[in-house]
Every structure is written in C-alpha cells, then in structure tokens.
Amino acid sequence: MPLYEHVFIARQDLSNAQAEALIEHFGTVLADNGGKVVTNEYWGVKTMSYKINKNRKGHYAYLRSDAPAAAVTEMERLMRLHEDVMRVLTVKVEKHDDGPSVQMQKRDERERDGRGDRGDRGDRPRDDRPREDRGFGRERR
C-alpha cells in the first residue's frame, strides 16, 4: 500500500485532549477503510504566520499512514467537513523516516539544551582588549 504523511491544524480553542481525540478519530477512519496509522504526533499549539478563520494559533498534528488511496480520500473528505479542522495537507512519500519528525526533534533539542552555547560567532574578529582601550567609556570631544 502507498505511504502518506498528513498534517492538519485544528482550532486553537480546543483542549489538548480534544485535539488528540481528533488524531485518534481520523486514525480509526483510516483503519475502517483498510489502512493503518504507522505513527502519530501531537505537535501542540503553534502560532501561524497568518490568520485562518480568525484564529492566530492552532493545534498541529502529524500522522504517518500506510493506506490505500480511497481511505486517504475519505479521511481528507471528513477532515474538510469537520468544523474543528482548519487546514489539511497530505503528501505521498516513498518511505517513512525512522524516529520522530523534524518538529519533535527541534522540541527535544530545546528541552535538553536550554538556550545552548552560542560560541564564537565567527563573523567578526574577537577583540580581547579591555573595553576602555576599545573606545568604550571615553567622553566624546
């Protein structure tokens, strides 16, 4: 069966539990039509770059599925009819990547590292002289 990746955005006024219930609901739609959800991820509430239906934020969800085209078409149809779903994107892929999606990898790195080490910027030479010798703190003439 073909492999697909789906991303959908749900309204911001839903609770996290309701958004995750939507993921489960659309997974069962795929299963009822002969497909299966390989993995699903709830990305959380994110700010969108423009308003959709007067909403600035939305609950983002990601599904990886192994399903026939008819099952995907039915799931997309139901998503577009559902009043809580604002946008849907489905992409057919050759194979699913192992591990979490890029969005979840970013979140894991942020949680582990905090702000992280900025290190040497590299775009300008480092001046090790004291601030006073570099012209800071002098009165202007």
* Estimated radius of gyration: 23 Å
Give the uncertain stretches in residue-range form: none
Report the CATH C-level class of the domain at 3-95.
Alpha Beta
| N-to-C CA distance | 78 Å
Largest sheet: 4 strands, antiparallel
**What multimeric state do the chains show?**
single chain
CATH homologous superfamily classification of the domain at 3-95: Ribosomal protein S6/Translation elongation factor EF1B
Helix content: 25-40%
Named CATH topology of the domain at 3-95:
Alpha-Beta Plaits
Instruction: Name the structural class.
Output: alpha+beta
Please trace the helix and strand order, writing H or E for each element. Answer: EHEEHEH
Mean pLDDT: 83
CATH architecture of the domain at 3-95: 2-Layer Sandwich
> Treating each run of at least 4 consecutive H or I residues as one helix, how many helices?
3
Report the strand count: 4
Strand order of the largest sheet: 2-3-1-4
What fraction strand? Answer: 25-35%
Shape: elongated
